[in-house]
């Protein structure tokens, strides 16, 4: 019997709309905006084989003390571990699903091979199913 918090599930941003509110997730995304007053980062990651992207609004208020400019700058890639707080909310672009996540940990991705990351996560996801 485990008494600790549940482990996070690694997934692509495009898989977040299928997650339930309360699920603990880990994902990689590209910063498209940072709204300082609300403590919200907006992340996206469009896969080449998908015709639409998913927008994730990440509440970073719990991690503000450790947040640096390299994690809020538009175009930067960041890793997020957090909990889904709402799914498929209507945003500015009705065609683009929007998910909200409460971050409990966020760090810069640094240099990465995005294609290898996508292939690895897809392979891991297919093993789980």
UniProtKB/TrEMBL annotation:
<dbReference type="InterPro" id="IPR012340">
    <property type="entry name" value="NA-bd_OB-fold"/>
</dbReference>
<dbReference type="GO" id="GO:0016233">
    <property type="term" value="P:telomere capping"/>
</dbReference>
<dbReference type="Pfam" id="PF12658">
    <property type="entry name" value="Ten1"/>
</dbReference>
<dbReference type="GO" id="GO:0043047">
    <property type="term" value="F:single-stranded telomeric DNA binding"/>
</dbReference>
<dbReference type="GO" id="GO:1990879">
    <property type="term" value="C:CST complex"/>
</dbReference>
<dbReference type="InterPro" id="IPR024222">
    <property type="entry name" value="Ten1_fungal"/>
</dbReference>
<protein>
    <submittedName>
        <fullName>Protein ten1</fullName>
    </submittedName>
</protein>
